[in-house]
Amino acid sequence: MATWTWMNGDWHDTPPMVASPMTHAMWLGSCVFDGARAFEGTAPDLDQHCDRVVASAKTFGLKPMHDAREIEALAREGIAKFAGDAELYIRPMYWADEGFVDVDPDTTRFALSVYDAPMPPVAGFSVTCSPFRRPSLEYAPTDAKAACHYPNSARAMREARARGFDNAAMLDPLSNVSELATANIWYARDGEVFTPVPNGTFLNGITRQRIVNLLREDGIKVHEGSLKWHDFETADEVFSTGNWAKVSPVIRIEDRDLQPGPMYARARELYWAYAHSAGKLA
């Protein structure tokens, strides 16, 4: 996997060593990151992903040493090291080297990695409801894109795969659907689209926000609300949005097979058109 990483003022074509066993992030989890995409000569919403990693760092008490526009410029430098048609993941990260429980902000570190990451095929995936839940802001720093959230997502994925599913929908503490283990979730019924309202149990995804706006501008009714798992089980169609795959159809929900539907197709079409108009790299 071809990778370029910017750290300590220079680009490295092999991942640099970043941590000792005493590093706070390894010991106590003070790592935040973001993930953007470059594909087909575009990098849609790269600026917003850079904004968010800075905001996540501040949520953790870290001291960002680069502002969002500096990070965006570095990301564009990294993207330019690859072929124009490369499919890439762009991952800026902040973490603390020192501290006891809380971080020492003056030991904040930064790295930015850009690497080959092919876009997943548009084959669709299966979903079940997880027994594990997403926490609310009272229980965890859900207002940051933080590495410490992902072990919970990992166990949800592991349990779902053990039962023959590709991904897992996770409920919030009040038994409303929050999100998938790896992306935001949507359903359509009677030509209208529904997705969980941001309620402090999941990040209001950048791709999610973009799709909400694109669908509404296209004249499609989008409802954000408190949704139950039964709503998804009985929907006309279900799909996901997220940075990794952008827009993907769900083709099985529990024991019910589904086909990719017109609302999914329109969301994907609108997003791709947006990416090629507003996200062009050159």
What does the model show?
This protein has 282 residues and is of the alpha+beta class. Helix content is 28%, strand content 29%. The chain is built from seven helices and 15 strands. It has helices at residues 24-28, 46-59, 68-79, 150-162, 206-217, 229-233, 262-278, and strands spanning 3-7, 10-12, 31-33, 36-38, 88-96, 108-116, 125-133, 167-171, 177-180, 184-189, 192-196, 222-225, 237-242, 246-253, 256-257. The strands form two sheets. Strands 7, 8, 9, 10, 11, 12, 13, 14 and 15 form a nine-stranded mixed sheet that branches. Strands 1, 2, 3, 4, 5 and 6 form a six-stranded antiparallel sheet that branches. Strand 7, helix 4 (150-162) and strand 8 form a beta-alpha-beta unit. Helix 2 packs across helix 3 (68-79) and helix 5 (206-217) packs across helix 7 (262-278). The two termini are 24 Å apart. The mean pLDDT is 97.
Taking pLDDT < 50 over at least 5 consecutive residues as the criterion, the unreliable ranges are: none
Query: Gyration radius, to the nearest Å?
Result: 19 Å
Helices, by number, come to 7
The number of E-state strands comes to 15
Q: Helix and strand succession? A: EEHEEHHEEEHEEEEHEHEEEH
- How large a portion of the residues is in β-strands, by DSSP E? 25-35%
Query: Quick one: overall form?
Result: globular
What kind of sheet is the major sheet?
9 strands, mixed
